[in-house]
Protein: ABC transporter ATP-binding protein
Organism: Nocardia jiangxiensis
Amino acid sequence: MLLETENLAVRYPNGAIGIEDVSIRIETGRIVALVGANGAGKTTTCRALSGFLRTEGAQIVRGKVVFDGVDVTGREPHRLVKAGIAAVPERNKVFPNLSVREHFLSAGMHRSGAEREEAVEFGLHLFPTIRGRMKHSAGTLSGGEQQMVAIIRALVSRPRLLIVDEMMLGLHASLQRPLFEALETIARDGTACLVIDESATRTVTTAQYCYLLEGGRITAHGNSADFVNTDLFGISDIGA
């Protein structure tokens, strides 16, 4: 088991509950979906796993996060990146004034130059249109291109687990296919992927295993096939 959380609970400084009881398991090379409605606690879970809770003064108050057999609960983001966890956030995915090339050059500094170059090439193979945008300021790119840049930048650190929060938020439906096909290639290359999304249709059918988050708690989980053509997610086109 690559990553495992046990009864994870998060509180914010004002006493608000971020998540109450989240237990998930992710195996190497697998795509796992974490889905739920807006406000269910998906982004809080992402931040708990990637170390960014401290930016909002939140903290894990119960449970633990174990990565590759090591308790990494509450570790800072840079330490988690070195351990092998990279995350693409829900918003503010890029630095608007930096060029695309600068995004890649500033990532994965704990890796060798050759490893980073190889990772960038792998990412550009996934998203060929980005190759022609290397000198552009990231803020001038479309939302879909920014998502692609953010994913490539995350890959530069050569993670063993890639977390993508709200994969399709604000993006046109036409981008579903290239983005999710890229995740499938990343997983085949050996990197586990946790996809966090409110729109469950493509997410569930791409993942091998799914978790449903409601009110800060995992209320259902199982193989992707168990959720196809069900009403667990409150939508009727899950098998589309």
